[in-house]
Each structure stands twice: as structure tokens, then as C-alpha cells.
Amino acid sequence: MPAPIRLRELIRTIRTARTQAEEREMIQKECAAIRSSFREEDNTYRCRNVAKLLYMHMLGYPAHFGQLECLKLIASQKFTDKRIGYLGAMLLLDERQDVHLLMTNCIKNDLNHSTQYVQGLALCTLGCMGSSEMCRDLAGEVEKLLKTSNSYLRKKAALCAVHVIRKVPELMEMFLPATKNLLSEKNHGVLHTSVVLLTEMCERSPDMLAHFRKLVPQLVRILKNLIMSGYSPEHDVSGISDPFLQVRILRLLRILGKSDDDSSEAMNDILAQVATNTETSKNVGNAILYETVLTIMDIKSESGLRVLAINILGRFLLNNDKNIRYVALTSLLKTVQTDHNAVQRHRSTIVDCLKDLDVSIKRRAMELSFALVNGNNIRGMMKELLYFLDSCDPEFKADCASGVFLAAEKYAPSKRWHIDTIMRVLTTAGSYVRDDSVPNLIQLITNSVEMHAYTVQRLYKALLDDISQQPLVQVASWCIGEYGDLLVSGQCEEEEPIQVTEDEVLDVLEGLLVSNLSTPVTRGYSLTAIMKLSTRFSSVNRIKKVVSIYGSSIDVELQQRAVEYNALFKKYDHMRPALLERMPIMEKTASNGPTEIVQTNGETEPSTVEAKHPPPVTQPTNQANDLLDLLGGNDVVPVIQTTIPTKPASAGGELLDLLGDLSLSGGPAPAPAPSVPTSQPPFLLDGLTSQPLFNDIAAAGIPSMTAYNKNGLKIDFTFERANPNPNIAVITIHATNSTEAEMTDFVFQAAVPKTFQLQLLSPSSNLVPALNQGTVTQVIRVLNPQKQQLRMRIKLTYTHKGSAVQDLAEVNNFPPQSWQ
After folding, report:
1. Cα separations in angstroms, 469 against 286, 423, 426
2. How far is CA 535 from the centre of its chain?
3. Which helix (H) or strand (E) holds 515?
4. Is Transcription regulation among the key words of this record (predicted)?
5. Which pLDDT tens digit goes with each residue over 411-421?
């Protein structure tokens, strides 16, 4: 049989292929020749054939049929055969294939070989693909080589020991005696691998961590010698002595110094020397400085050292390399909570990063800018962030708008500034704001009595300029409906009042009703605003005509509103002024929401419980009515305690409903449940007027369930049945926190499909203690008259480690006993 071609010739031939098909044909032809050679047990050219096979494997072609040939090469006595055999084993074999166990005996023999290069091959292979069984069998040989005086073998044995510890952690103590003298080695290769081994042992075992803390002074000496040593061509990289070893030692010091005062004290001086003496003109120096900064931030370092570390990150922000700027922003974002004042010094540089072309840097700079906002710099920072909001890509607008809302709510220097800022956001990025921005701004405007005239004038001007931003249009419509009389009378004192007639205002609102840009919700706001103006303007006949036109609208929501408003004009005109009077000031009782909303699913508002019932329930009746008025639901009969409230307009329901489009079927809504007599209390408190709210609750043997478990927060549901009404399921939530930091401002909200009715009672607390040391409970009552399968969407908001967290989840796995 002719001799097979050499590897070099094969490479040259494959590179001449003009198409992938041509290359595939060459590979298949050569593979066929190699298979034939393997079948004939050709020992002369086995090494050459396996080398060619490895090259094909690197190109992505199958080469598994060469696995046994690798084992034969490993068993050979020739070094060249062993070298290719071990290389093939590392590439073609892994621990998931049983064939690798056949190598164990060969590796054991080679670990005891008289030639160091053969021993090195065996150590590399074991450290690359050794399984847990192989590691157990060969750990003794590795430990023996770790104690040898040969530097070449010691560094390879140390890396192999790292792999053994990862596969079989219980063998860690076997290597402990061998690590005593590793750091006294002069060879940098052995030092480097020794530090890697010590790092692995410290990360995997608290006992090892405590044991190796006594090595901190020795590590400090090694690091000091590295930075103080003169030029060494063997280890020099861009003028820095062995930066790879320096980085490894800094990482080990970071682990050893974490949460330990003595170790941190011992390394403070050397960290300061590294931070001040390292050259920053080359990337190598920046890598060492970055590791130094991470070490300073993780250990219990002195305050001056932490300021030095943050200043290094500040210098990184001026670097031309995008990667360096990115890691600097990321590191500053992690430290801003603990070293806020030090990071504040670099605020202008951070803000400049908002103009960077790289989207990753812009996002990190935006997040860090919001973290730096406080009461002292709110005006300047908001000016920069609003400018960024104007010019940023659409992918940033939602997060930026949300951040501006939160910062303005927390640090607003005045109500006028707050209103101007929110309106600026709505004008710039109205289509990207959160769903709760409209009720939030409405609540803010309502409570700013002295700003009503100024606000309605500003919003009217904004409507004349642009009606494409729907949240802005909705707020403007609501304000014009509430304070249209102030707009027409020109009572604005903060700026020059504009001259507007009643007809001009109505023209604008009617334009919104017919505009193609208006959503159904916006049209509902506009129609309600026009209706409110019937008690504030004299143009009542024109308003009647507009309302009557939409009584036949194809939009069912708009039609329902118009029909009910027509009925108000015709049958209850004497009640119209009282029903459409201006809203009172709403008290804000939740830190992360507009008001303490009566949390229902938008079908009906629960009435309040009489004062004699002990458990806390929903807000007073007048506030529930205020909320309906705020949401444009003037067609709703006021909520009272002894009559059944009329179904509110669904636009209000949409704002109160977390579910949005969640429904149990795509068909028409089922017929409503039979109404209860008006002599009984409405909704979920049906039949409970003569007894406490939970006076007679019988356990129904319903299994509990976990509704939410994420980021350390766990929400469990337990179930009971309420007597005498079996259609009411009483669900008690139990919120626990397994993280190390408590969760504050905790708010749980829930919603169900519109065939159900839901009532949330007050929680036991708004603080969820850390480490599962306490539980927050809250009661949910769900009325399910049609016995349909229960589905629920929950919304969780809380503050954790200084950051506001918000999450939505859907719960569909309720036990059948809870709803049947």
C-alpha cells in the first residue's frame, strides 16, 4: 500500500478547494484512505493518519472513528506517538464516553515514567479530560509529582490538581501538605499555578480559606517583589513584570481578605503601592489596576484606599478603549451604594458617557447616572438625562422615562418642577412610559391645588402642538375636563395666560374623538372631559349634541359612556352638577403608586365595611368614588354601603386591572350572576353585616401552593372557604424573604378575569424581613359564582438593597378544590 500523504500536503490540498463541496469531497476521500489504513493495522503511519484526522476534526468533520487509534498511540513507547495520541485523546475523547477509562492504566504508567516530557503529557491529558473515576485512581501520583523538585512537573501537577479538586472535592485535603512549600518557589510558572491551586481550594472550602489566611504576608512579599523588581526579559510584558502572576495574586488576596479585618489590614499597603506605581499607558497596566480596584472594594479596606480605587475607575472613563470604559462603569455601578460621595466626584465624566456611540456604554452610563441622582443635584442631572431622552435610541426611552419618573417623585424640589419634568417626559417619550404614569401624574396634579391653572394651560398648549403621545393626551383631556373653567378664565399666574374661548377648547376635544391617532382609551377620556365641561362651560347644547352622536358609536365602550351621559342629561339633570363636580385632593398612602387604590378587577367596586368590623379593609367610600372620577368614570353610581354599585366604565377598569387582556375564553362574556337584594351588603361582604369578616370560616382541606419564587422572594397561597357563601374563596398570601437584606415598601397587587370579583385586604406589614425571619400576610377574597377555573395575575413591587424592583407573574395552577 502506498504511503499516505503528509499532514502538510493535506492542508495545502484542502486550501486549494474553491467550494465547500469540493473540500468535503477531498475530506471524504482522505477519511476513506485513513479508515483502510486503520483496518490493516498499519503501525508505521498510524501517527501521521491520526494527526491528519485531528486536523479534519478541527475543521468540523467527524473523526470519532480514530478514538481507539489514539489509545494505541498512547500505549506506544515512542514519544512522537505518545504526543499525538495524548493530543488526540484530549480532542476526541471526554468523560461521557466509556472508552476513556481504557487510558487510566497508560496514564498511570506515564506519570511514573523516567522522562519528564512523557510525565508532562500524562498530566496535561488528565487535567484536561479526566473523569471523577480517573481522578480518584490517579490523585496519588499527581500529589507525588506536586512534591517533586522539578519545576516543569510541579507546575503541570498543580494545574492537574485543580482539575482533580473540581471533579472530586473530597480529595482536597490530600494536596494540603504539598501546598506548604509551593509559594517559596522561585520559578514563576510554579508560582502562578500554585496561586491558581490555592484559589480553587479557598473558593471550595471555608476551612481551607481560614487555613490559608496565614499566607497573606507571603503573598504580599511576592507581589511587592514583582512590582519593585527591575527589568526581566523572561517575564516582562509591556514594561510590567509578569502581569499574569500579579493578577492571580490579587484575586487570591481578594478572596482571603473578604470579611477578615486582619488579612485586609495586612494587604492595604501593597494594594496602595500597586495602585500608585502601575503604568497606565498600556492595557497590561490597566488590567492589573482593574483587579486591584476589585480587591480593594471586596476586602475591608480603609476609606482612603476606596477613594483611590474609585478615582482609578474615574480615570478609566477617560480611556479611549471602549472595553475599559465599560468595565469602569459596571464597577462604579456596583460601588455607588457604598461609596456614593466618592463616585459623585466623577459625575460629569459619567454624564459625558451618555453621548458615547456604543450602546452598552450608554446603558451603563444611564443606570449609573440615575443611581447618582440626589436632592442636591436633581436639577442638573435631570437636565442632562432629559437631553439624553430626547436624542437616545428607542430601546433606551422606556427605561430612561421610568428612571426620570422615580427620581422626580423622590427628589423633586418643587411641585411645579415635578409637573414640568413629567410633562417633558410625556411630550418627548410618551409612547414609551409605564402604564401607571397617567394616574400618577393625574394624582400629582390633583394634589397641587395652586398649580391647577398653570398645569391646564401647559397641557392645552401641548395638545395644540402634538396629539400623537397618547399618555400626554389622556392627562391633558382629564385636566381640561376638571379645570377647563380655569383655562378659559385665564387665571394662570406662573406664566402669561392665553386667551381661549369655550368653543376652541371643545374643538380640541372633539378633534381628539375623531383623530386616527387616538386610542379607544383616549377617546373615552375625551368624551368624559367634554361631559364634565357641561357643568363648567355655558355651551351645554353643543355638548349634548356631541354626546348624543356617540350614542351610536361602533366602539362599545364609547357608546356605553355616551348613552349613560345622555341619560344623565335627560333623567337626572338635577344630579349632574354634583356628579361632575371637581375632584377633592387624594391622599397618597403608597410609596410606589399614585394612591392607595381600591384593588379590584374593574368589574365592581367593593363597598367599605362598617366600622364595627374589626379587620382593616378598603378605603372609605368617598375615596373610591374619587378614584372612579379620576379615571373618567362619571357614569358610575357612587359606591355606598347598602346598594349595589353600577358597573363602571371599562376604561377605568383597564387602569385598575392588572390583567389587561386576560380572559378565560375568546367568546362573549358570560351572563352576570344574579344580583343580590339591595338590603344586603354588596359584593364579597355578602351576608356578613351581622358578624365579623372572618367569623365563620371553615377549612376545606385545600392544599397550599407556591405562587411566586424569584430573587429570594417567595409567595405562598393557603386557601379556606367562607361561610355562609361557598362561592367565596379566601386566599391568604404568605411572603417570605430568603436574601440577606430586608425588602421594604412591599406591595402585593392581584387581578382576576372579569367573570370573577376580587378584594384585597390590608397586609400585615410592608416590610419583608431578611433570612426568612418573618412573614408578611395578606388576605384575598375571590367571588366565583360560576365555578370557573381560577386564574390570577399578580404584581409585586418592593425596594431591595436600595433599588426599586417590580415584577409581574401569572398564576394558573390553583388546586381544583379552590374553585370547584
Report:
1. 46, 11, 7
2. 48
3. none
4. no
5. 989 888 998 89
